[in-house]
Amino acid sequence: MFSSANTVITLCRTLLPHPWSTTIIPVRSKNYLNRPRLRNPVWFVKKTRTLHNEQFTEDNSAFLNEMKRETILKAANRSQSNLVKLANEDQLAEWSPGLKRTGVIAKKIGQYPMWTKNGQKIRTTLLQIIDNEVVKYIPPEDYRPAQEPRQSRNWRKPYGCLLVGAEHGDPSLFTKDYAGLFAHSGVLPKKHLCRFLISPEAQLPPGTALTVNHFRVGDFVDVRGLTVDRGFQGVVKRHGFKGMPKSHGVTKTHRRPGNIGAGGGKARVWPGTKMPGHMGNRWRVLRGLQILRINPQYNVLWVMGSNIAGSTNGIVYIYDTILPLRKHGAKGAPAGPPPFPTALEPSADPGDVWLEDLHDFRKLSITYSSSE
C-alpha cells in the first residue's frame, strides 16, 4: 500500500513543473513597473518657445506689462460673468449618488498646525487653487485618450473629459501650438493643464471658473501629487535599510544592501527586490483627506495630513474621494449634496470657514467671570 502511494507521489513530482521554473514569476512589489518618467509623451504639445532678445525699451516693456495686467483682469471678470450666466440657466442637472464631478488644480504652499477644541494637535497642508478655469469639454463618444486607462471603460455610464487649466501665463512665452489649445475657449493660456473624467451631467462650459467653494468644510478629498525627485539613491535612503555596524570587523559594507537571496535553484534576481535605484518623481495619491478650513478670499484649503506628495509650490490635483465610506452620500460624509456641477455663487462671508470641531483662534479660549 505504501509503495504504491510513493510511486504516485514520485510520478506527480516528475510531471509537475519545478517550483522555481521560469513559468512562475513572483513579484515582491506590484508597482515595480511604475518607473519615473523624465520626459513627456510624444503626443504632448511643446509648451515653451525659445526666447530671443527683442531689444525692447523700458517704455515698451512697461506698456506690454500693462496690457498683460489688463488682459488678465478682463479674463477674471469674464469667468465670473460666466458663473452668473450658468447660475441663471435652468438646464443644470441635480446631484445624485454615483455622479462624478470635476476636480481642481492647486499649489502646495506649506504646512500649518491646528488644534481641536479638546487640545489635540492636527497637522494640515495648505493648498491654494490658482486661476482654475474650464478650457474644454469632450463628450464620452468623442473622448479617445492616447493611452487607455487600466480599468475597463464603463459603457453603461460613460465618462466625459473636462480639460482644466490653472495659473495665468504670459502668452508670449508659449508656443503657437500650445496657445492654440485655448483659442476656441476664450481663456488665456495657462501654465498647467489637467484632464478630469466626469459624468456628462457635470459638464461645464469653457471659461467657467473653479474656486475653493467647489468643496465644503468637512468634505473628504483625494490629493494626487508628484513626489520630490531624489535621483539615484542607495538602499539606506531609498528603502530605510539599517546598514551594517560602523566598526568591529566591517570593511566597506556599512551602507550596502548585502545578500539579496538570489542563489539556489532560481539563480536570478526576483522582480521587485529592494535595491539601489531612482528615488522619487512618482505619482502618489492620498485618499480620504478631510478639509478642515477654507479661505474664500485667497482660495486656500487646509487639508488634513502633512505627507502630501510634492515640494513647496508644487502642483497637486484635488478631487472628490472614491472611498466608499467617505464619498458623498455615505454615512461618514457631510450631510447634503455637494455643489453640483460646481459652486455657481460666491460665498456670502469672505472670512474663513472652520470645521466645527476645530478651535477658532478668532475666539477666546479662556474666559474669566467677575467674582462678587
Care to describe what's here?
The protein has helices spanning 2-15, 58-88, 176-179, 235-239, and strands at residues 104-115, 121-129, 132-138, 160-168, 190-198, 209-210, 220-226, 231-233, 277-279, 283-295, 300-304, 315-320, 353-354. The protein has 372 residues and is an alpha+beta fold. The strands form three sheets. The protein has a six-stranded antiparallel beta barrel. The chain has a four-stranded antiparallel sheet with strand order 5-4-3-6.
Structure, briefly:
The chain is of the alpha+beta class. The protein has helices spanning 2-15, 58-88, 176-179, 235-239; strands at residues 104-115, 121-129, 132-138, 160-168, 190-198, 209-210, 220-226, 231-233, 277-279, 283-295, 300-304, 315-320, 353-354.
Give the low-pLDDT segments: 14-25
Tertiary shape: globular
Order of helices and strands: HHEEEEHEEEEHEEEEE
Helix fraction by DSSP (H/I, runs of at least 4): 10-25%
Cα-to-Cα separation, first versus last residue: 101 Å
Give me the Rg, rounded.
28 Å
Please give the order of strands in the largest beta sheet.
1-2-11-10-7-12
| Total DSSP E strands | 13
Largest sheet: 6 strands, antiparallel, barrel
Can you count the helices? 4
> Mean pLDDT across all residues, rounded?
83
Q: Strand percentage, roughly?
A: 15-25%
Structural class computed from helices and strand pairing? alpha+beta
